[in-house]
Amino acid sequence: MKVTKFGGSSLANAFQIQKVCSIVLSDPDRRVVVVSAPGKRTKEDIKVTDLLIDVAKSRIAGADYKTPLSAVIARFEEITSELKIQSVLPEVISAVTEVVEAEIHDSVLYLDSVKAMGEDSSARVVAAYLNSTGHKAEYCNPKECGLFLEHNDIGKAVILEESYDNLSGLVKDSDTIYVFPGFYGYTKQGQIITFSRGGSDITGSILAGAIKAEVYENWTDVDSVYAVNPSLVNNPFPIREITYDEMRELAYAGFTVLHEDALFPVYVRGIPINIKNTNNPSAKGTWIVSKRTHYDSLVTGIAGEKGFCAVTVSKYLMNQQVGFLWNVMRIFMEEGISVEHIPSGIDTVSIIVRKKYFTPEKQEVICNRILKELNATDIKVERDLAIVMIVGEAMANSVGIMARAASALSNAGINLRIVNQGASEISMMFGVAESYCSYAVKVLYKELFRY
Ligand code: ASP
Q1: What is residue 50's predicted lDDT score, i.e. its pLDDT?
Q2: pLDDT tens digits, residue range 79-103?
Q3: Nearest-angstrom CA–CA distance, 424 and 241
Q4: CATH superfamily placement of domain 2-222+257-262
Q5: Is residue 451 scored above 80 in pLDDT?
Q6: Which atom of ligand 1 is nearest to the CA of 194?
Q7: pLDDT, averaged across the chain
Q8: What whole-number distance in Å separates Cα of residue 59 and Cα of residue 51?
Q9: Which pLDDT score is estimated for 293?
Q10: How far is the CA of 182 from the centre of ligand 1 (A)?
Q11: Which of 40, 200, 201, 258 best tests ligand 1's pocket when mutated (most atoms within 8 Å of CB)?
């Protein structure tokens, strides 16, 4: 069995929904379909989820929520009328209005419940359309199917483990297609809660894990994932295959293909992900796997992200002092700052942290504590650091990539503030000034993908 998830652009209008359904029907293994809310039809359009957020926020504020609500309903009117399934429209409208008009006890939960209605409506529409073409399909309600979540952070639900068991028997009938709304589930108290934005990817991954699917297909609007951000380079090299580990390393430097929480449920169960294009289904797409079968290139991908800080602590004879590093880490931990990387020298150590958490106030507290409590000789903070990652498992068996990368950057006049290669040799990390971030990625791409 395959779990097949379609993103918002694949459900933006009736024509796209027809494509989705013909993809589903073209392979009898596609038994579970997970859908997002309708996305943008044009560049200027508004996603249904954004309209719903507007509805909820306006109602909470006592402002006009009927205008955005009628825009949501108009989207589904148009879709159902073009698909000639008007009979499902009353069901869609009543599910949406029931949630929108509900009494507001808690504005966070209210916002989540309204936000989820785009996915809920999409699932009803897709199931109805499949039925109208003579196929057996069923809309799945996440509560009835047992997808239970809890709030970890506001608007950022996480799964309760028992859900996997509950969902394992989802596919009951051998000739029915199960259409499941993405993005949301229920608390044990019966309230709707959502994952963070883009969270339908997580629902697909959970369902693939629960039913032990042979593959998790994630359909979007590109032929493949590319070795570098396509907005930086023309015709970038397509990635046919990438491991979960490589993906994690690249995601770290801002290379996001799926929602970052969507990898885990399939990763731990060894289920491969296939990223595919709804607008070009015959393209092979990109496979995310545990173990690669072949390598098309030495380097799999290059990515860069701004927004890091390096805190460099110096202490004479640091290497001889037992527990110095531990104490530095303890101070960061006690101040609630997550540490990203720790490149170190003999008498210095650099702590790499994200600028958005390491505020100037936190910087002052942490630096003072390190100086006073640990008697550090010196401490320097650079707040304009970008991290550039070169990732590829094939690099482990080849000599000279670091030399090529470093000399390409130096020839381009880019100063390397930090260089780090993990012991696994799957990635190399460079710290450069933020202003050089995109330039460094382009220089490295030119050097390493030049054949
Ligand atoms: N519709 C939600 C969003 O726009 C979730 C999703 O599409 O995955 O974020």
Answers
A1: 98
A2: 999 999 999 999 999 999 999 999 9
A3: 19
A4: Acetylglutamate kinase-like (3.40.1160.10)
A5: no
A6: 5
A7: 94
A8: 12
A9: 86
A10: 8
A11: 200
Q: Quote the CA–CA distance of 327 and 340 in Å, as a whole number.
A: 16
The CATH label, of 3.40.50.300, 3.40.50.720, 3.40.50.2300, 3.30.2130.10, for the domain at 301-449 is 3.30.2130.10
For residue 135, give the nearest of 30, 29, 26, 25 by alpha carbon: 25
**How confident is the model over 236-245, as pLDDT tens digits?**
999 999 999 9
CB of 37 shorter than 6 A to ligand 1: yes
Ligand 1: residue of 34, 49, 72, 201 to mutate (most ligand atoms within 8 A of CB) is 49
Question: Residue 182: CB within 6 Å of ligand 1?
Answer: yes
State the pLDDT at residue 319: 81
Task: Give me the residue spans of the domains in the chain.
Answer: 2-222+257-262, 301-449
**Cα–ligand 1 centroid distance for 373 (angstroms):** 46
C-alpha span between 205 and 200 (Å, rounded): 9
**Closest atom of ligand 1 to CA, residue 119:** 1
Residues 313-343 have pLDDT tens digits of 999 988 888 999 999 999 999 999 999 888 8
Model pLDDT, residue 423: 67
> Which H or E run contains 404?
helix 401-411
Q: pTM of the full predicted structure?
A: 0.90
In angstroms, the CA 265 to CA 269 distance is 7
51-60 pLDDT, tens per residue?
999 999 999 9
- Tell me if 10 CB under 6 Å of ligand 1: no
- Model confidence at 4, pLDDT cuts 50, 70, 90, reads very high
Half-sphere exposure of 304 (CA within 13 A, CB side): 23
Tell me how far the alpha carbon of residue 48 lies from the centroid of ligand 1, in angstroms. Answer: 9
Which ligand 1 atom sits nearest the alpha carbon of residue 50? Answer: 4
Q: Is 39 in the pocket of ligand 1 (CB under 6 A)?
A: no
Q: Which of 386, 393, 353 is nearest to 249 (CA)?
A: 393
Which residue's CA lies nearest to atom 8 of ligand 1?
A: 198
